[in-house]
Amino acid sequence: MMDETDTRKGSGQGAAPGGKPPREGWSLAFLTAMLCAGLLAFFLFDPASSGGFWVCPFHRITGWYCPGCGGQRALHELLHGHFAAALRLNPFAVLVFLPLAGAAFAAYALRVLGVMRPRPFALRNWQVILLLAAMLLFGVLRNVWGPPL
User: Fold this and answer.
1) pLDDT per residue as tens digits for the range 20-61
2) Which residues are within 8 A (CB) of 74 and not within 5 positions of it... i.e. 6 or more apart?
3) What is the total count of domains within the chain?
4) Whether 141 contacts 69, CB under 8 Å
5) Is 10 within a domain?
6) I want to staple 93 with a disulfide (CB 3.0 to 4.6 A). Which of 1, 3, 53, 71 is the partner?
7) Residue 147: what pLDDT?
8) Phi-psi category of 143—alpha, beta or left, where left has phi over 0 and alpha has psi -120 to 50?
9) Residue 54 in contact with residue 70, Cβ under 8 Å?
10) 118 and 107 Cβ atoms separated by less than 8 Å
């Protein structure tokens, strides 16, 4: 017959201090390693002149710029400390997407590490609609005036 302590989640030998399963710690380590590797690639290689980076299928098919076009080059410029150049390439990515992605990663890391328990965060419908409307408006306006790509 099997021991009861082996079948319960969080008890037994596999549990980390505090009762959290170690799998979440490994996922944070893996995510952090992948993020660092990606940022290193964007730092070392310029997406404008290097091969192997994502090519926007929307731009390739239509010839128009999507709200994300220029985001990879903007990230490259940001990593080199060229904030104005990054803003010229894609202000939406620099001012909205990258800060949101960074905040999401920080909240996840703080929760997993047990440093801080962030308040529950949920976007309301009107916030999602506002974000999508801003992204759509940015996409339209950048095609009217033409981005400096």
Assistant:
1) 556 777 889 999 999 999 999 999 999 988 888 889 999 999
2) 85, 86, 87, 89, 90, 93, 94
3) 1
4) no
5) no
6) 71
7) 58
8) alpha
9) no
10) yes
Residues 112, 119: Cα–Cα separation, whole Å? 14
Model confidence band, residue 6 (pLDDT cutoffs 50, 70, 90): very low
Written as six digits, the tokens of 99 are 């800060």
DSSP 12: S
Residue with tokens 């964007």: 42
Q: Match 């290689």 to its residue by tokens.
A: 45
Q: What tokens appear for 33 in the block?
A: 């390693």
DSSP for residue 134? H
Measured distance CA(4)–CA(77) in Å, rounded: 56
Q: Which residue has the tokens 């990230």?
A: 75
